[in-house]
Structures are given as structure tokens and as C-alpha cells.
Amino acid sequence: GQNIDQPTEMTATEGAIVQINCTYQTSGFNGLFWYQQHAGEAPTFLSYNVLDGLEEKGRFSSFLSRSKGYSYLLLKELQMKDSASYLCAVMDSNYQLIWGAGTKLIIKP
Amino acid sequence: IAGITQAPTSQILAAGRRMTLRCTQDMRHNAMYWYRQDLGLGLRLIHYSNTAGTTGKGEVPDGYSVSRANTDDFPLTLASAVPSQTSVYFCASSPQGNTEAFFGQGTRLTVV
User: Counting one residue from A and one from B, how many pairs have CB atoms under 8 Å apart?
Assistant: First the structure.
């Protein structure tokens, strides 16, 4: 079966760095997405990785290792507004997105 | 404002009633999707459409139907609602199947 695993909840301190991991097992691979979702709101796109390596976009970076079925989202200089759920999703061989349950990130002052 | 709009924002529905959730986008995206999001579970695909005139079943299609008469609209119908369909429903669109998706604000549906 297809499976996306990510931690349920993480806590970090304002100004610090946090890494949210995602492992996946899917039928085929056409890219991995990270989305941010604030409570009661819609998911919004953060990043897309299809090749191995690190993609940096401001305070957020995303890493992919296809051979290990592994990705992480790195958030630097954490701000209170970064408190949200972070969703990992993999596009399978049929170009359908398979979603993880999301990681709730709590930022403390 | 360009984007994707869902209606209604929330609804309480009696079991057995028929309900259509509306979704409209003005970005001329080819692909559209309906997801449900339940606590502790990832987004689950109900139905999708890769282009106007075509639809396909996702992971959890039972009890739901869709149509795609034109590029902009993708309504989701619950023929006879049941309590297990209580959920938050998100409509999304993307320019084509392998690109980022843009989400509507969601419809919170409670079936009692």
C-alpha cells in the first residue's frame, strides 16, 4: 500500500530551527510537496522537490532523498506565525497526490 | 480576485438529505480535485477531473458524485448524506496534474 509518515506534533522555540521529517512508500514517484495549513484555513503551497537535494526558499528549505524515500522541511528563525500544520504529499505514478496526516508545529516564545 | 471559491462555508445537514457543494475557479486550471480532511488523517481524494468533460474516482468516492461541464465549475454532490460524511471538504485546482494545487477555503459539513 501507499504510505506517508510524519510526526504528529512538534514543539520549537521562537527564533530557533526545526526540521520536520517525512518518509514515504508510494507506487511511483513524480515529486514531493510540502504545504502549510493554519488552523481553520486551507493548505498553501510551500515547496516542491522532484530531484535529490536541498531546495532553499527564504527561511524554509526542503530536502529530498529518493533512494531513502525521505524528505524534510527545515524552518529557520522561527516566528510565532509559523505555528501551523505542515503537510507532506507525494505524487504517485498516476499523478495523484498521497497525503500525510500532517505535523502540527507549536512555537513557544 | 483570482482564485478558487467554495460554497457554502459551513452547513449542518440532516441525514438522508441531498447536498451539493459548489466550487468555482477563475484561473483557467485544467485539473480540479475534491478532498475531505478528517482529524488525524491526511487529505483524502474523493474525485478529480483532469480536464473539462472528464472525471475520475479517488481514494474515497463512495456516496459522492461530481460533474465537470466546463473549466471553471466542479460541484460535489452527496446523494443521501450519512453521519460519516461529516468532514471538512476542500476543493483544489492546478494548471495540470503534476503541478502545485491551489485550495479553496473549505466547507465544514456536519451530518446529523
Answer: 42
